[in-house]
Write a structure and sequence with these properties.
The chain is α/β, with parallel strands linked by helices. Helices cover 39% and strands 13% of the residues. It is globular, with a radius of gyration of 21 Å. One of its GO terms (biological process) is polysaccharide biosynthetic process. Belongs to the DegT/DnrJ/EryC1 family.
Length: 387
């Protein structure tokens, strides 16, 4: 025995790219029109991405946060309305609603899947609720059966925050085929990326057309007389971004297949480590792209968790602390916050209080590694926690 602490050999790099992305960039360059109104890359990407997710109605935008904003706007969100969001999520989920003048209402999540809790969601619905926003955490679908019923009974819209859920499936259907709007992100760490970018899928052409106007300063595609029909902003994706994303989409299925093989192995190994609880899976989510490999260490302090993450990184494992509860971020309270205290929200979000304090996640490129690397990750974590 060398006595040296275990480490992990280098994982595949992210982003992954090759001649397909290079060819796309040259194709976009050579067409001589680099914005969506003159070129063909964005239009083609929308058709391909929409078809992949089960709908002919997709809109490409500048980034994932803007995807949420455009979607919320066309769903009628604005001053005087409320949007129900999981309290455990990246803060764009709530800020998108707050930027439109709405109030974001944080609710608790399921302790096993980390997705929005249907019972907590139903309890939060008021006559001002306009949208319920489930987040498909780390690629695990929220309980869409229960949420669909809650939304239908209340007469409100569902907006899927699918920033982690490219290619994910709920009972055989992808996000675009579930009858509600879904918003995606292509930020640098996402499952497919061009550095930034976003997309929204819609269940019908009319809503997509209203979103098109909103994302292009209220101006119809064929307008030549500056007849801006509605309010909006410039959220248009450029041709180079779309060209890269077309190549990235073509890589996605193969990568998901590898992650779906690696996660059950890694999760089983992590579960054997005393005190470690991997994120669970609702089997109705029958395809999970695994944007993050997530696990909890119940009872760990936040200071100790930070030390564990630092130690994992030092030994070759790309690890991160989990999202902070949105109501414990100063930015959440700057506009559109509910008339409650932090302590009051925390009291009705006990699961979020646990998860945001004791959860760790690993970059999805770890799940593109070898089977041996899954064993190595577990060995490193066990050693770190025992130290």
């Amino acid at each position: 025995m060398s006595g040296q602490p275990p480490t992990v050999s280098e994982f595949p790099e992210w982003p992954q790219f090759g001649d397909e992305e290079r060819a796309g960039l040259i194709r976009a360059l050579d067409q001589g029109q680099w914005w969506r109104m003159g070129g063909s890359e964005v239009d083609t990407f929308e058709a391909e991405f929409g078809a992949y997710h089960g709908t002919p109605h997709a809109l490409a935008v500048t980034n994932g946060t803007h995807a949420l904003e455009v979607a919320l706007e066309v769903l009628g969100v604005g001053p005087g309305t409320e949007v129900i969001v999981p309290a455990f999520t990246f803060i764009s989920s709530s800020l998108a609603a707050q930027r439109l003048g709405a109030t974001a209402i944080p609710v608790d999540v399921d302790l096993d899947t980390y997705c929005i809790d249907p019972a907590a969601t139903a309890a939060a619905v008021t006559d001002r609720t306009r949208v319920i926003m489930p987040v498909h955490m780390a690629g695990q679908f929220a309980d869409m059966d229960a949420l669909d019923k809650i939304a239908a009974d209340a007469g409100v819209a569902l907006l899927q925050d699918a920033a982690h859920a490219h290619g994910a499936q709920w009972q055989g259907r992808r996000a675009g085929a579930l009858g509600s709007v879904a918003a995606f992100s292509f930020q640098n760490g996402k499952l497919m990326t061009a550095g930034e970018g976003g997309a929204v899928t819609f269940p019908d052409a009319e809503t997509r057309e209203r979103a098109f106007l909103a994302h292009s300063c209220g101006r119809p595609r064929t307008d030549r007389d500056y007849l801006h029909r509605t309010t909006g902003s410039n959220y248009r994706m450029n041709e180079f971004t779309a060209a890269v994303l077309r190549a990235q989409l073509a890589r996605l299925d193969e990568q998901i297949a590898v992650r779906e093989q690696r996660w059950p192995l890694l999760a089983g190994l992590l579960a054997e480590i005393p005190g470690v609880v991997p994120q669970g899976r609702d089997e109705r989510g029958d395809r999970n792209p695994h944007y993050m490999a997530m696990f909890r260490v119940p009872g760990i302090t936040m200071e100790r968790r930070r030390a564990v993450v630092d130690a994992l990184i030092a030994r070759g494992v790309p690890a991160f602390v989990a999202f902070r509860a949105i109501y414990r971020c100063e930015g959440f309270w700057k506009a559109g916050a509910p008339d409650e205290t932090v302590e009051a929200i925390a009291a009705r979000c006990p699961n979020v209080e646990r998860i945001h304090s004791d959860c760790v996640w690993l970059h999805h490129r770890t799940l593109l590694g070898t089977e041996q690397q899954m064993h190595d990750i577990a060995a490193v974590l066990a050693d770190v926690l025992a130290g």
